[in-house]
Amino acid sequence: MRKVIVNEFLSLDGIAQAPGAADEDTSGDFEHGGWHMQYTEDETFQKWVMPGITEAGGFLLGRRTYEIFAAYWPNAPEEEQVIAEPLNTKPKHVASKTLSDPLEWQYSTVLPGEVAESVAALRQEDGGDLLVIGSTVLVRTLIEQDLVDEFRLMIDPIMLGGGKRIFPEDGALRQLRLVEHEVTSTGAVLATYTPA
After folding, report:
1. Are strands 189-195 and 150-156 parallel, antiparallel or unpaired?
2. E strand or H helix at 121
């Protein structure tokens, strides 16, 4: 059985919206895009992010994250090929009600039917673990359906005051167990949790 691993960059107040660039996602009048980038120039960060991407058997992506990645990674510069190569060559499963196959980015397919059922079926297959990057709406759905096996969170020492979150606000109690953690030189906390 494969694991579903959620990899997210979060602010201290739990925001996951637009960590990478000012224009990444301005919906809801979000004005702090790119907030995460000041915390990435750290050797500890690189050691934490790279293995997740290179060791993944495939990726689960929401529509918005898929479109951002599909526009960038196929033409990424040479210095980013260490990330681009696995993203471009491994299977990408996209949760979308508006996109349909065939998708333009190679090795990408739309999850058929209901997301929870499709992801549950993917978990039962042989192969490497499935890594979820970004994709706030998809992550909330996976959490609500108890389909997340591991959370890899980078919690940055910044508060954004509002924006998109990955955690459902449904009143359900979900206990987690901290299995690994490290603090970077920039003050970010790298924490890995599994369901308790």
Report:
1. antiparallel
2. helix 115-124
Question: 136: burial class by Cβ within 10 Å (0-12, 13-18, 19+)?
Answer: buried
Ordered domains of the chain (ranges, CATH): 52-149 (3.40.430.10)
Distance separating alpha carbons of residues 193 and 15, to the nearest angstrom: 18
The strands making up 108-110's β-sheet, listed across from edge to edge, are 108-110, 92-95, 58-62, 130-133, 4-11, 150-156, 189-195, 176-183
Torsion, Cα of 3, 8, 12, 16 (10° steps): -130
Whole-structure pTM value: 0.95
Q: pLDDT tens digits, the chain, 196 residues: what are they?
A: 999 999 999 999 999 999 999 999 999 999 999 999 999 876 777 788 889 999 999 999 999 999 999 999 999 999 999 999 999 999 999 999 999 999 999 999 999 999 999 999 999 999 999 999 999 999 999 999 999 999 999 999 999 999 999 999 999 999 999 999 999 989 999 999 999 9
Contact 92, 66 (CB under 8 A): yes
First to last CA, the chain: 19
